[in-house]
Amino acid sequence: MTTKIRNGTLNLLSLAALFYFLWWAPGNLDGYKLRIINLIAINAILGLSLNLIYGMTGMFSLGHAGFMAIGAYVSALLILTAEQKTTMWILDPIAPWLLNLHTPFIASLILAGLAAAFLGWVIALPVLRLGGDYLGIATLGFAEIIRILIVNLTPLTNGSLGLKGIPAHTDLWMSYGCFVVVLIFMVRLMNSNFGNVLRAVRDDEIAAKTMGINTFQTRVLAFTIGCFGGGLGGALMGNLITTIDPKMFMITQTYSLLMVVVVGGLGSITGSVIGSILVTTMLEWLRFVENPVTIGSFHIPGIPGMRMVIFSMLLIVIIIFRREGIMGTREFSWDWLFPAKPSGAKGVRGQ
To answer: What pLDDT, on the 0 to 100 scale, is given for residue 178?
Structure first.
């Protein structure tokens, strides 16, 4: 009981420290740093949702960018005003039923996640009968289909022009509030009996079937929940950047999320959080390699995309020398800071 009280107290103190930082940061940090801090929370949500699919259930999916796109567009369409929509749709008129459709931001986040989850469920029914690399290829194909549909369904999405002037509702409180809710949900989920079922399906699907587990329904449910997280993260990102277009949701977006999961550790909630911090900050810090450099009379022109090359090389090194990632399948525990003292041998009463 003492350990539970100690851990609960430390959890509350950590949450209070996070709240204090969220209160302190807007008045003391510039806009660029605030955006990076927001992106860390959003990437953590996306990393956790992809880790649920890939690391915790064992389904190799490359379609997360497509579900992000669904979430981003659904949320944006629900919070843009009728005047903004009328001005923005210039290639084709907007669908009449969509013009006056408007909801509060929180409702748009929930509906964005539900829309992505529903589409994920529809896709999961045929696709999850595949496995391994075939599943990855199929989900990659669906993500590309979603992106192409966004480009061509101009009355709904404004096509390749994208959506601009989206209200910037995503601030530190919103992004980290959603992150804390997702984190608590993931911890509770993986500590429940269903979490044990997911691990069983991941480790040995045949043995799980022998134990009476409906592995297909389990995988479909895990995939659907992960897609909800993808839609939620996409909606938050769209409202942070305030402009979205189909090019934002290409396969490279999924690769960045895979970096988060692989670097942190497949199957580790803590690893996804650590991976989001490292990947987000490193990708921003490495921007300097794309700028032109002059050393005396020697000039090196900037090479666009070089930061991704360098980061990919670092990822390869991690995979070669530490395939399990930083955390592996381990989770952070306060017990690491307070190791149990070995109980000494009690004296034996002499005869």
So the answer is: 94
The pTM of the full predicted model, rounded to 2 decimals, is 0.89
C-alpha closest to that of 65 among 122, 145, 125: 145
Low-confidence ranges of the chain (pLDDT < 70): 1, 293-300, 302, 339-351
Confirm whether 45 is domain-assigned.
yes
Domain count, the chain: 1
| 229 within domain boundaries | yes
Distance between CA atoms of residues 306 and 8, nearest Å: 45
Q: What is the pLDDT of residue 214?
A: 87
What pLDDT is recorded for position 318? 77
How many CB atoms are located within 10 Å of the residue 11 CB?
A: 11
Range of the domain at 44: 28-250
Instruction: Residue 46: name the closest of 312, 249, 215 by CA.
Output: 249
The torsion defined by the Cα of 270, 271, 272 and 277, in degrees rounded to 10, comes to 100
CA pair distance 115, 78, nearest whole angstrom: 12
Residue labelled with tokens 């090389």: 313
User: What pLDDT was estimated at residue 311?
Assistant: 74
- Phi, psi at 293, each rounded to 5°: -125, 135
Strands in the chain per DSSP E: 163-164, 243-244, 293-295, 298-300
H helix or E strand, kind and range, residue 304: none
Q: Which two tokens stand for residue 222?
A: 């895990």
Task: Give the span between the Cα atoms of 114 and 229, in whole angstroms.
Answer: 9
Query: Which of 222, 285, 243 shows the shortest CA–CA distance to 61?
Result: 222
Q: Is residue 69 part of a domain?
A: yes
Residue 14 lies in a domain: no
Distances in Å between the Cα of 245 and the Cα atoms of 36, 71, 76, 97, 161 are: 20, 13, 11, 22, 7
Residue 81: partners with Cβ closer than 8 Å, 6 or more residues away: 102
Encoding tokens for residue 313?
């090389």
